Amino acid sequence: MILSLPGNHIFAYEFNRGNLTHYSQSTFNLNSNETLVGNKLFQANSTPFEVPTKKTPPNIILIFCDDLGYGDLSGYGSVWNQTPEIDNMMTEGLRFTNFYAGAPVCTPSRAALMTGSLARRVDLDLDIQNRWVLFPKASKGINPTEKILPEILKEAGYATAIIGKWHLGDQPEFLPTKHGFDFWYGLPYSNDMAIRVNDEPILPLMRNEVVEERIKGGAKNREHQATLTQKYTEASLKWIDEHNERPFFLYLSHTMPHVPVAAREAFHQQTNHPNTAFGGSIAEVSWSTGQLLEYLKERGLSENTLVIFTSDNGGAQKFGSSNGILKGSKGQTFEGGIRFPFLAWWPGKIEPGTTCHAPASVLDLLPTFSSIAGAKPDRSPKRDGMDISDYFFNPDSRQDDRPFYYWHAGYLMGVRLGDWKLNLLGTFHEEEKKNIQKSTYNLTQFPEDIELINLRKDPAETTNVSKDFPEVVEALRKLADKQIEALGQYDQYGPEVRKTRVVDRPVFLIE
Description:
Elements: E1 2-4, E2 10-14, E3 22-25, E4 34-37, E5 40-43, E6 59-65, H1 84-92, E7 94-96, E8 99-100, H2 106-115, H3 149-155, E9 159-164, E10 183-186, E11 195-197, E12 200-207, E13 210-216, H4 228-243, E14 248-253, H5 265-268, H6 276-298, E15 305-311, H7 335-338, E16 342-345, E17 354-356, E18 360-361, H8 365-373, H9 389-393, E19 404-408, E20 411-417, E21 420-423, H10 430-439, E22 451-454, H11 470-487, E23 488-489, E24 492-493
Parallel strand pairs: 6-14, 6-15, 7-17, 8-18, 9-10, 9-14
Antiparallel strand pairs: 1-2, 2-3, 4-5, 7-16, 10-12, 11-12, 12-13, 15-16, 19-20, 20-21, 21-22, 23-24
């Protein structure tokens, strides 16, 4: 794929199944006043890309897909799905190759996003029945005492909205309008969680705290969900139109491509995917992204708006998603379950066509957005993310390696530090494996022992090198032990867990 940059500079982008992805320099015809350094283009006597100042807080739009896999976008190597608008966003912006979820399933990853803390730390890695996501009429939800992302931005003067899926509790005290969002239009949980009302599966489409529409759920009623992406897009554009006189934060949390996947019929014709509903849903998300970016350009908002495009976790392969060369699937702590596309777009601030290979995660978005917005630093409680805004403007910059912890369903299943990943799945006893198996969508084969992987050389996790690097295993194991000491595991909670509220008599949003 050819990616054009300003002037006569061209990148040839290659997707190589032996190596995850890389850029190569090819056929450069630079103007006399241009210099190529690494993957950046500099122009003499000009500063086209400036780091923003806190005096001009930008608008922030976070586009958050549901179950989008690493290999589901054409710009990340898909040969089935056509995503020209998202690819264009990548051409005009920055992409990450090592971006992670807070967990490989919906609720805990979204808890990590909203709090900047591990879901285990904020008591949202398990529901009260020790299931790995929240279900309708959930007793648990986001803790009312936590100051979450929209609340921080609201204090900094931002208008705030969530359009799309919430999935952090469906009881009144857990709804997004009680946690810093001025406006909400969307579903309270996943689109496969319909409640049976008069013998029909029903999903509540909410406007703030009122059920505006009852949508038929279930795989047999896909056509009733086929307009959700369109509705979210139209609602987003309308809300921005009404709130762009001040800084705004829009969290566009798509329902798709979570199953049951659905899209308008026209988008079924824009995919080569054998499952046209799946490919069509991704094509429509790409269309939606293009609508937003084009709107920002036309209204003169683009140069003061940071747009992020990413997902909540990896793709569910059994439903048609692709995680590229990455091993595993949604619900698993192999890379395919927890690593996915991440794009950042900000004309005039972020250099077009750049790539960042540094590890980062949704945990980092709260401190990053807070910093960019000039929000007052929040010193407590303890958060696990860090400000990665420097990567947006200097993608080749280096920071000290920090551990990333692979938590899922109450268990610490791995640790990454730099290029090294320690897989702990082979260390659990049989009862723990039974608990884990349920949450990993029937993972049938556990490693026999601890595994050490060099992710830079082996992103597909094919080769265990633990015997060759015992000192690395020991160092990562110490990090894991310290983490478990602080947060506990499964139904044994450590001293650093901030327990959330439990509702005594939860009720359904619809009866």
